[in-house]
Amino acid sequence: MTPRGWALLTLAGLTIALVVVAALFIPWHRPPAPRADQLAALRDLPAEQVAKGREFRAALRPGGYTALAVGLLVALALGLTPLGSRLVELVGRPFGGHWAAQAVLGGLAVMLVADLVTLPFAAWRQSVLTRYGLSTNGWSGWAVDLLKSYAVSAVIGAVALVGFYAVIRFAPRWWWAFGAAGAALLVVLLSFVLPVLVEPVFNKFTPMEQGPLRAELMSMAARDGVPVRDVLVADASRRTRAVNAYVSGLGPTRRVVVYDTLLREATPAEVTAVVAHELGHAKDSDVTVGTLTGALGAAAAVVALYLLGSWAPLLRLAGVDSVAQPRAFPLLLALVTVAGLVAAPVQALMSRRVEARADAHALALTRDPQAFESMQRRLGSVNLGDPDPPRWEYLYSASHPSTVERMAAARAYAREAGR
Ligand SMILES: [Zn+2]
412 CA distance to ligand 1 centroid (A)? Predict the structure, then answer.
């Protein structure tokens, strides 16, 4: 069999593995609370809060979607015309067109162009956040954050680019196989190291101070059978008023993080409800499953790019002879951008199901639907969320059930449990 035949077979295998993992580990059968209950929850929210959340989300929308469209158009312009390959050549020229210079500097230059065209929209978003009082870091803090995130992307991008094109040189016929394995490994590695290497670039993390709340959270974790070494507090207040919590990392790097804003704004019972939700993610290994699907998806993407990349019309458009050249990187980036936009609603759906399961876990663990509901109200009001967002936007991008869905779920739990 030819390498191409093997690649087709591998892609089929990876696709089946992805479907099996998703079928086994994503809780698909989790119907949302009845719409009537959601509407009842919506009516119970202060009209002013609902209006303000909707106004804020509407203010973000034009810039957000224009940025998406501009990002896509620029990626297509660079990848499906010779513009991008010329840029890679130009950047590599001072180094005699050496493959490594083209691969790393050329690749980073293309990524930088893609970032810079959406920069005005990012600035505009920051101005909206400031106007609505959600941002606390000012323009200098915002610029520092932006430069830091460029630097982090540049480091990770350079490692990935040099690795990818070195593999192509080392195994010109089978690079897709090594590339797929490397991409999967990189996803797993990043899941391990992001919490310890990257998150501290943006925030300071300190163990939650001793006291009754910390003791309650640790004993709840023990009761839940989820070993948690510590609850960490992130100094999120340096850039936002928004409240949040999350769980990240794998094995030894796993941690539950709460924003300092959450501790400041919410009652202890509400913080407990939030942490119970995060323990649900830990208990159901949501980070592990997310990493596994990410790794399989990345491997499948590399093989798919290899197969698509032998399609002559695409190469002709990009002005390259082979997808294996660093000059073809803009073409790869264009294909990945399109795939990302297409995959977004599927990822959002999977995320919403997983989040709904973590909510159910929080309710069962705390047996306090009132605190859960008031926590949802507070999240919605402080973060200026639309409690019941437009259907199309919800389907395309909502990573969490809506506020009214989550309130209705708490009420359904209370009804069933007789509380
Ligand atoms: Zn969650």
Answer: 19
